[in-house]
Give the backbone structure.
Amino acid sequence: MDWEFFWSSEHGRDRLLRDRLEDYQGRAAAARSQQRRQFERQLGELRGDLDTRLTALTRAFDAYVELDDVREQLAGFPEQARARRRATEALQALAEGRQPEPLDDLAGYWLPAAVNALRPDGRPDPAGVGVALDRDATSTRRFLTGVLGAAGHGRAGARHAVDSLATDRWDDAQQLIWLAVADRVFGAEAITHLHGVVRPALDAVGDEGWTQWLADRGAGIDAQLDWVIAFYQPEADPEPDDGARHRDDLQGVAMIEITEGSPPEQPLIARARQLRMMVRDPMTEPADAEPNPGVEVAHVLQRAALAENGPAGARQLARRWLAPYLLGVLDRMPTPTPDEPVVLRAKSAAVNVAVTAAGPDPKDLAEAERWVRERHTPSNTPLIRGGAIAGGLLVLAVVCLVLTWTWLAVLLAIAALVVGVRGFWEWQQQQQLVLDGQDAMARLHESVQQTRVQAERQDELHAELIRKRIDLITEAKQRVAESA
């Protein structure tokens, strides 16, 4: 029962009913407002989602329409498309050991000349290769590199593999070629020639760049030296590869060059590839049509050297090529030399003495000893003064006694006794001062000796650190030199 409503008057009940009605109306209004805000937010999200989807579908439809136009334009190059199909068939025939039928030559297109130059024995026709190189050297080199490497004729494609990597940056296809070269798919000579090609890129990193690269491997010189020693642990050389491990990758490199098309087709093929992606996934923003700039050669080699679980051939080769630059960093590291002896301060009371492993500073020690002696030298003045006064009082007491001045004699005798006792107490204080001085001097020399031992220990520790640093530098240089 609501007792407030029960005990209220009629006017009070009207007021209570009116307050409660206003409270219910306020709650209802707040609930409606909250529901309206939630509905507006959900409607906005739905509208935004619908707008996004509508935009994506519109973009996909436009891409589909444009793709149809691009296909019509590509249909204007039937001979080039036929050449690509026949090139794929020719590669299949060569893989089976058969001489494929020659492709019809197309003016300005490198692919027919490059395919016609291939032979089942793995030795391309130099004249045909020359024609293809004149038309498009980059595509021809990559194509021949992929085909010959995948077919097990890597030595015949060694020059093309190295020439295809003679750039400042390597894209994905070039990095696949680099991995195959490192595994000796193209022979040892290809590795030698490639080293000469990439050396300028490694030189361009500079002394500061290599120093910073090593600094990123560990905090502090000792940590960096430990890393270098572990980095160049002896490792067995991998077996040469005849192309089997890299066959799929090298075939993919060749197929990339085939599908790129002839020069007039290349922008259309690239656009068609982008449009197909837009149609396949409308919600994804269209990919940038600009070519992949690739990765700097030095960064590729550094990454390969650090890849503990990466291809062993690339890792070992990269580490060997990086070794001279790390040797340079090690040579530039400051060789630690013994510093001046450690100087510590021996403290005793308010006295400080400079101390090394060889002993205390003579001037400081003499000054400290003088300070101790000055403050602990006894004074005989109070004793002499007290004795004289006591003696004088006793003489007067005797005189008074002779004159029968008994009470005065007694008083003088008592006074002499008091003065004598005080003098004896002062004499004891002076003797204690001497003992305190001896203790202070002993503490001073003990502190100096302990400090000398500490200085000796610190010098030994520093010398040990220097020996360890020199041994680390020597071992690191030896490990890197053996790898180089």
